[in-house]
Amino acid sequence: MSKEYPPQQLHIPVMLDDVLQLLEPTAGESYLDLTAGYGGHAGAVLNITGGPATLVDRDENAIEHLKGLDLKDAKLIHQDFANAARQLVEQRQAFDMVLVDLGVSSPQFDQAERGFSFRSDAPIDMRMDPGQETTAAELVNNLSQDELIKIIRQYGEEKPFNARKIAKAIVDNRPIHSTSELGDIIRQNIRSKGRIHPATRTFQALRIATNDELGQIEQMLPLLPDLLKPGGRVAIISFHSLEDRLVKQYIKSEKEMGLEAELEPITKRPIEGSTTDVHNPRARSAKLRGAVKIKNRKDYTR
Ligand SMILES: C[S@@+](CC[C@H](N)C(=O)[O-])C[C@H]1O[C@@H](n2cnc3c(N)ncnc32)[C@H](O)[C@@H]1O
Question: Whose CA is nearest to atom 3 of ligand 1?
Fold first, then answer.
């Protein structure tokens, strides 16, 4: 059973009980959080381990928030996780547990000025790292119609007909200044089934493109075996099928390596947030997968 969380928490960690069951933290074990956010998962793990920990996030607002929490002298790294993971591997740092909780935090989504939501009127920003140069507005106002179609289809998984209509409407209405303006242009040009807003998929696509979210995951996954000590556990939470597909394929490809494999899946199928964390609306689309670094393989050379 999942807990009910206090409403004043800025970001309610998703599937916390499942994550703790999967990572199995014990006193003194080391923890790496590649998407530390507002420290919900990290705080719960550190309450059990007492440290040491390394917490990474590309959003300086999250890092500032983490500085104010009691996180047992955790080392904080303000960087994207592909680069942070690469550097940690170069420094030969390995951990007993690694957590990757993908996607955006509630403050990123809820603060209008971050420009992630069509429900508020703000510049079309969508940068997880506000120090990054390219904003979603630059993509919206500068990409060619064909490039927009490709992004909206690939990253928004939008139907080809809709993607073409949306891209044309964007190009015809440029420059587009605000999230609500963009949301309205999309709403006026396509229909979507059910209660989902017609702009949802396009906003997801622009967010993924702006932050190179899938590229980040592709670069980080192969570094996981080096980031784990033998017997170390990794848990990965994804929020849409594009993310989960990459994670699933990576864990599967490791398994298929047979004796060469470094990771063993812990979860045969993903654990679904919709069934285990019913009180947290953010968990509705969450999927959790886990793997353990193989301990005693005879031919293990690392
Ligand atoms: C879902 S939230 C994590 C919440 C966190 N587990 C907690 O309990 O507060 C995702 C966080 O990951 C960060 N993030 C997403 N992609 C990242 C990347 N490629 N590199 C570093 N941080 C990333 C976001 O900035 C955001 O703060």
Answer: 37
